[in-house]
Design brief:
The complex is a heterotrimer of chains A (430), B (171) and C (318). Helices cover 29% and strands 22% of the residues of chain A. Chain A has 430 residues and is α/β, with parallel strands linked by helices. In chain A, a hairpin with a 2-residue loop joins strand 20 and strand 21. Chain A is globular and about 65 Å long. The model of chain A has no long low-confidence stretch (mean pLDDT 95). Chain C is of the alpha/beta class and 318 residues long. Classes of the chains: A alpha/beta (430), B alpha/beta (171), C alpha/beta (318).
């Protein structure tokens, strides 16, 4: 199918391009920018005046709740939510049920995703069997089946020797490890950031040191092994200082932050609102400001949604009993736009944090053109009305995860069309 | 509308009536009970002027009103204080203005939670009519007619009483 | 965000916490409690104020003492009282908190008195009850025990009258204490110029300075010249090793003895929310001594709870 996207403002963070340029697609590739190739006759012309055309978003963390948690969300519903949010590639953490530690499971997931013909699915393999932190998984076989890296999701590894072995093994084959820095004991049972607000509310706190002590441990082990390390969901100013120093030192470190942490702080818990029960917990204003500064100076590579569908029964509980997590696939783009506007960050830079930079983190395990629009590259892109406002609600969200601290809030940016592999897979006027 | 009488003159008339009523009852068996705030002021002054023994009682009828569901709990004046045994006594209930009669009903309910009096008489400074319950004041200094949107207020300056009217915006 | 405890007219419709409760509402509750105190001396200790209303005691966490005082208070207001010990029933069968509340609301409840082990549970309940239903927090997790805070303030007002020239010390496990948090909130709202907490570092939360409190680890230093000493109960779990080595060592450093009490002002009063662990946080000689007002706290507690229930039950919908 030959597509001509006409009249849009093209923003491609990878090349730094922000200009009025038409896009020409044939088959599954972008075959022309601004000018069509010779002898190009479009089968369909999409009138994109007033819209932005940008690479499809690359989301480094989205839980789809399959296999195992189908009563909360399904592959179909969540892949649909991804497209509604303009997300064309997403990375799946391994904490499914059973955990993603078997090549057969990975193949089954990728097969089902391919059949749905929606976004691209990149699973993370479990670093240890059952995520228990005791036995290494068959990383080579899992990689052959399609895993892009290895992770412990939110499960701690209490045995430092085991963590060292995992790093050594991964380094042998140059696999990347994606790890959340959290000390297994400090802040165990904590449900909010330790500090004045949690203290006032009588909520058990997770101190910042739970993150910094874990980071120090991980960096020390990394110095011994030179493994490629991606740090998931940094939450604190102190943690970011450590990451900054590690990168300056030359360690092979990248990191991401959850989109909710770019906007919210512990005070947003308000009167015990479980919607704001997240992990890592929302921290102080100082920490949020440090996250924004780190996004500006590149210490943080990417913003992800950390999409976690939670059902009503698990959220409508007293704060400390509620399950942490929020829906995010459909909020990632809007919240990134909001952050860009609030900080006067040029879109070509801001949108890079959800397109080209996450693709760089994924490295060679994904398509060369992932997260970018270039002639000859695969056509994964979305058309966005930057100025359309929408209110976050159970009705406007496609995901089965209806819980987010942003419920009832009006946000900018609506995806009108999503194209994966050269095909229009989502269109909406709403 | 009749012109407003002088409060001191009314008080003098009330005192005369109460003194006469007490004279009809067995000595030592009579107690004054004033309803906060205006009735309690009147009872205090009557008690002193008539040189009665002990102390008069005072009632805060907030817990016995019939309008709790409509307007909730009143902001408090002083608590009830009945410093004598009510059982078998002749009580003279004192209030400043008698209107619908609901305050007096509440006051009597409250008094019966303290014990069983031998009798209760009602002494008021002003009866403004408008009764909604079968309540009557045997001892009353004056009858005054005012429109429904107007309230009659007793005030106290030192030990002198004054009466004023207050009309509310909505009838 | 509107204070969830107040209705559109600014009236108190739920009592969930003393944090952020305006001073005039606190004073209104104390003044109202004062009018209920004389009832205890009457033969008929009841008033008909809440006649026909149903008060449900929902205790998700056991407490016979607190539940009994709420029951007495409600009955003295002529309300019908129903006690539900949720431990034993539906919750353990997996019924969610909100489903339990819906079922009970269908039984025409007017007031829910709630005790729960999770901070914030009464707030969640208050958000989900029908407009005419009122929630009173009888203690939630570590967060708040507002009626205890109020009766503690009533007690202090009874003995000391003026809050604005007092020094008050709270001793013990502040970290896990909803009573301490409510007391601190009330004391600062009422204008107490110096609030102190005394305890070992393991039992004091960080960030207390933000609440306007001075921290002492040395009890003798902390008790010097105070007007009011509030002793907190040390729960058994805390004495098991991770936070404190033993009850004996705790008593040595943080137990209130005659000798330590002598450092406070001569007319200082000693308070305790109860039940007391004699020999752990407080010496029997002090507990039974003339400066202790602990039994009066219990009496005042009934009047305060009557005041709270009267005020919220009479407020319009949220």
């Amino acid at each position: 199918m030959k597509l001509h996207i006409q009249g849009a403002r093209l923003i491609d963070p990878a090349s730094g391009l922000d200009a009025q340029q038409d896009v020409f697609i044939a088959g599954n590739r972008v075959v022309g920018l601004a000018q069509p190739p010779v002898d190009f006759t479009a089968d369909r012309v999409i009138d994109a005046r007033g819209l932005v055309v940008m690479p499809g978003l690359v989301d480094l963390a989205a839980r789809l709740r399959e296999p195992g948690y189908e009563y909360r969300a399904t592959l179909e519903s969540e892949m649909q939510a991804a497209l509604a949010g303009g997300v064309t590639s997403l990375v799946l953490p391994p904490d499914t049920d059973p955990t993603l530690d078997e090549p057969g499971l990975i193949e089954m997931l990728k097969h089902r995703a391919r059949l749905l013909n929606q976004a691209r699915l990149y699973p993370l393999g479990a670093m240890t069997v059952g995520l228990k932190g005791e036995k290494l998984t068959e990383m080579a076989q899992l990689t052959d089946a399609g895993c892009v890296a290895f992770s412990q999701a939110d499960e701690p590894v209490t045995d430092t020797t085991m963590m060292l072995r995992a790093m050594q093994y991964a380094r042998t084959f140059d696999y990347a490890l994606w790890l959340r820095p959290q000390d297994p004991w400090l802040g165990r049972g904590g449900v909010a950031a330790a500090g004045a607000y949690a203290g006032r509310l009588g909520l058990a706190g997770v101190p910042v040191q739970a993150e910094t002590i874990a980071l120090n441990t991980l960096f020390e082990l990394q110095r011994m092994t030179d493994v490629r390390l991606h740090l998931c969901r940094i939450s604190s100013a102190a943690g970011l200082e450590l990451v900054r120093a590690a990168r300056a030192e030359g360690l092979r470190v990248t990191c991401d932050v959850g989109i909710h942490h770019v906007h919210l702080t512990d005070v947003d818990i308000g009167y015990f609102d479980s919607q704001s029960n997240l992990t890592p917990p929302l921290r102080s204003q100082r920490d949020r400001d440090a996250i924004r500064a780190a996004l500006a100076d590149g210490t943080i590579d990417a913003i992800c949604s950390d999409h976690t569908p939670v059902d009503d029964d698990s959220k409508l509980l007293p704060f400390s009993e509620a399950e942490p997590g929020a829906t995010g696939l459909e909020l990632l783009l809007s919240l990134t736009l909001k952050w860009a506007r609030e900080t006067d960050t040029p879109l070509v830079k801001a949108l890079g944090r959800v397109t080209s930079m996450p693709a760089e983190v994924l490295g060679s395990r994904v398509l060369a053109s992932c997260g970018r629009i270039e002639v000859g590259g695969t056509a994964d892109l979305c058309l966005v009305d930057l100025d359309a406002m929408w209110t976050v609600s159970a009705q406007t969200l496609c995901s089965q995860g209806k819980h987010t601290p942003l419920l009832g809030i009006e946000l900018p940016g609506r995806v009108r069309t999503t194209i994966v592999d050269g095909q229009v897979v989502y269109e909406s006027q709403a | 509308m009749t012109p407003l009488p002088d409060a001191e003159a009314l008080y003098a008339e009330l005192r005369r009536a109460v003194q006469a009523a007490i004279a009809q009852l067995p000595e030592g068996s009579v107690h004054l009970v004033g309803i906060h705030s205006g009735g309690a002021w009147l009872a205090d002054r009557l008690h002193a002027d008539l040189k009665l023994p002990g102390r008069p009682g005072a009632l805060n009828i907030s817990f016995y009103r019939d309008d709790f569901d409509r307007i909730g709990l009143h902001h408090q004046v002083l608590p009830s204080d009945i410093p004598f045994d009510v059982n078998g006594k002749h009580l003279i209930l004192v209030d400043d203005v008698l209107y619908t009669g609901r305050t007096i009903r509440g006051a009597m309910n409250e008094l019966f939670d303290y014990g069983r009096p031998a009798s209760i008489q009602l002494a008021v400074l002003v009866d403004r009519g408008g009764r909604e319950l079968p309540v009557a004041a045997a001892l009353c200094a004056a009858r005054i007619d005012v429109p429904a949107n107007t309230s009659i207020n007793l005030t106290r300056d030192g030990d002198r009483f004054a009466i004023s009217l207050e009309t509310s915006a909505d009838a | 965000m509107r204070n969830p405890q107040l209705n559109r007219n600014g009236e108190l419709t739920h009592l969930l916490t003393l944090d952020g409760l305006p001073r005039d509402i606190v004073n209104h509750i104390l003044d109202t409690a004062e009018t209920f105190v004389p009832l205890a001396d009457r033969d008929i200790k009841k008033v008909p104020l809440l006649r026909g209303k149903s008060v449900f005691n929902l205790f998700f966490e056991n407490s016979t003492r607190t539940r009994t005082t709420f029951e007495i208070a409600a009955k003295r207001l002529s309300a019908d009282v129903y006690n539900l010990n949720i431990n034993a029933s539906s919750a353990s069968k997996g019924e969610s908190l909100l489903d339990t509340i819906s079922n009970l609301s269908a039984m025409q409840a007017d007031v829910f008195v709630v005790r729960h082990s999770a901070s914030g549970a009464p707030h969640l309940i208050a958000q989900h009850v029908a407009p005419h239903v009122h929630v009173v927090n009888a203690g939630d997790g570590w967060h708040a025990h507002p009626t205890q805070g109020l009766l503690d303030m009533y007690t202090i007002r009874h003995y000391k009258r003026d809050f604005t020239n007092l020094t008050v010390a709270i001793v013990g496990d502040v970290l896990h204490s909803r009573v301490a948090r409510s007391d601190i909130n009330a004391l600062t709202t009422l204008g107490v110029p110096e609030v102190r907490v005394i305890g070992p570092m393991t039992l004091l939360p960080g960030g207390l300075e933000h609440m306007g409190v001075k921290v002492f680890h040395d009890m003798r230093e902390g008790l010097r010249d105070v007007d009011v000493v509030i002793m907190l109960r040390l729960q058994n779990e805390r004495m098991r090793g991770a936070l404190l080595p033993s009850a004996q060592e705790y008593f040595k450093n943080y137990g209130l003895t005659q000798e330590k009490l002598a450092l406070a002002k001569p007319d200082a009063i000693v308070m305790h929310p109860g039940p007391m662990n004699r020999g752990v946080e407080i010496d029997s000689a002090v507990a039974d001594g003339k400066q202790a007002v602990i039994l009066n706290q219990v009496t005042f507690g009934i009047a305060v709870r009557m005041a709270v229930m009267s005020i919220v039950a009479g407020a319009g919908p949220a």
